[in-house]
Amino acid sequence: xxxxxxxxxxxxxxxxxxxxxxxxxxxxxxxxxxxxxxxxxxxxxxxxxxxxxxxxxxxxxxxxxxxxxxxxxxxxxxxxxxxxxxxxxxxxxxxxxxxxxxxxxxxxxxxxxxxxxxxxxxxxxxxxxxxxxxxxxxxxxxxxxxxxxxxxxxxxxxxxxxxxxxxxxxxxxxxxxxxxx
Length: 181
Fold this sequence. Notes:
Strand content: 5-15%
Family: Belongs to the EUO family.
Protein name: DNA binding, excisionase family domain protein
Number of domains: 2
Domain Helix-turn-helix: 27-75, 96-142
Region (Disordered): 156-181
Organism: Chlamydia ibidis 10-1398/6
CATH topology of the largest domain: Arc Repressor Mutant, subunit A
Mean pLDDT: 74
């Protein structure tokens, strides 16, 4: 199909955002900015609307690369969260988030939340976040997780014993073979 009107035709080939940024252009589109920072276009758009990221719009949104870098430095990160002037999750002091604890122990996040709610793992509530100390993580690992592993090992060995005793019992195929003779 042929394009009659030149204004309605557009080039489908978009340049790679990284190469266009390297060529010296200081402005990128929302899509290019999202690809550069591994976020969604919606995240970039929301940052513009909240005035956290400077951008201008003539025909489409254009973002200056300097502003984009400034936004990246200042954007929200949970690891930089402060509570009463102190870092919320200061790993050097041994304070970890629920997600970090779950990753360290190799268990689901919901299990850590359940352990903190029931009191099997002690954690401090700072604002909306749970902060768990490294000594508490070790205590939980030694007291609860090691028992669970031992229990699963015992149950696994019982299953093997049960299956070996049940196989020595009468077999339906053998009984039917006896009846035919």
